Amino acid sequence: MRWENLTVDSGESGGHGRAADTALFGADAVVSRTFDTPEFRGITFHEVRARSVLNRVPGASRMPFEWTVNPYRGCSHACVYCFARKTHSYLDLDTGIGFDTQIVVKVNAPEVLRRQLASRRWQGDHVAMGTNVDCYQRAEGRYRLMPGIISALTKHANPFSILTKGTLILRDLDLLVRAAAVTDVGISVSVGFTDTELWRTVEPGTPAPERRLDVVRTLGEQGIGCGVLMAPVIPFLSDDPAQLRATVRAIAAAGATSVTPLVLHLRPGAREWFMAWLGRHHPHLVRRYERLYAEGAYAPKWYQRRITRQVHELAQEYGIGPTRAGAARRIRPAGAPPAAEPADVSEPTQLTLL
Ligand code: SF4
Questions:
Q1: Confidence check: pLDDT of 351 > 50
Q2: For 229-254, what is the mean pLDDT?
Q3: Atom 2 (ligand 1): residue with closest C-alpha?
Q4: Distance 118 CA to ligand 1 centre (A)
């Protein structure tokens, strides 16, 4: 998305909203607002009207889907390692704190999607959400775009998947159940580790891992099978065998239908931000990281394979899989193949580490 694909939102904000600095993108590009409530303090929302919300994934991508819908840009979940950070630079926005606090909101996303799904040119392909930034980040509590998006997809029986760290998804539980009755729906929750101290510093804006696992549990109780993307596994901070075991055990206890491990990767944008954080919180690890990621954005294959093997062995030991009681027939993890085994992630993918 570029700013030139967007037009000004002329609507008025309600509640505590107030117009703010529109000069940032040019007076005709957006309406920017801030809200005085504690949960939105320090965050600016740039409301835009998108002309299109169905985005085609570039052909060269290794994504297991072709179409995405992303109602937001930037993410207040503020994960230090988030590789979507770089996408903020395309909008001339800061990829560090700016990514966490300057949130672009496509306020007309549901109505545009309704129009696009009704077009004769649309073939009804799978639509993936949560692949760039989290569609159930805090902004969604105010803008409520996802109910309209899910309803539009349901009306057209269009298959879709959602990957999230947001407990807010439970607000839309009824809609998801209705959607799953007419089409394939995949839900995945991202939980890379269960270490509370690590969570507080590296994923400061997200619900706690335990709360996210409660989402998995609740979805399962409602007959909606939910996979867990165990991402990221953070070298030297969450990859100890005991830590991996504790995480997989908790994922199993929550009733996840699959677990897919993914080792931290550090692409430009995320790399600088993460390494600065590492220097502040774990300075003794900086040299080890420079060596481990000396070849580029990805940890060495041997390291990725080791983590994958360990997690898959633990998953077997704890009996994680779609044959567990409570796994729904129509629903499989977002982006995952409809296979009985957890996806092989020995090859790095380009999923945002939600
Ligand atoms: S990793 Fe996901 S939840 Fe975290 S900041 Fe990025 S988009 Fe948001």
A1: no
A2: 98
A3: 354
A4: 31
Contacts of 98 (CB under 8 A, 6+ apart): 74, 88
Best residue among 87, 95, 354 to mutate for probing ligand 1, ranked by most atoms within 8 Å of CB: 354
Nearest CA to ligand 1 atom 4: 79
d(CA 234, CA 238): 5
pLDDT of 13-26, one tens digit each?
Answer: 333 333 333 333 44
Ligand 1 atom nearest residue 166's Cα:
3
Best CA proximity match to 71, nearest among 154, 187, 207, 164? 164
Query: pTM of this prediction?
Result: 0.86
Q: What is the mean pLDDT of residues 108-115?
A: 97
Per residue in 151-178, pLDDT (tens digit) is 999 999 999 999 999 999 999 999 999 9
SS3 sequence of 255-319: CCCCEEEEECECCCCHHHHHHHHHHHHCHHHHHHHHHHCCCCCECCHHHHHHHHHHHHHHHHHCC
84 lines ligand 1 (CB under 6 A): yes
Nearest CA, atom 7, ligand 1: 133
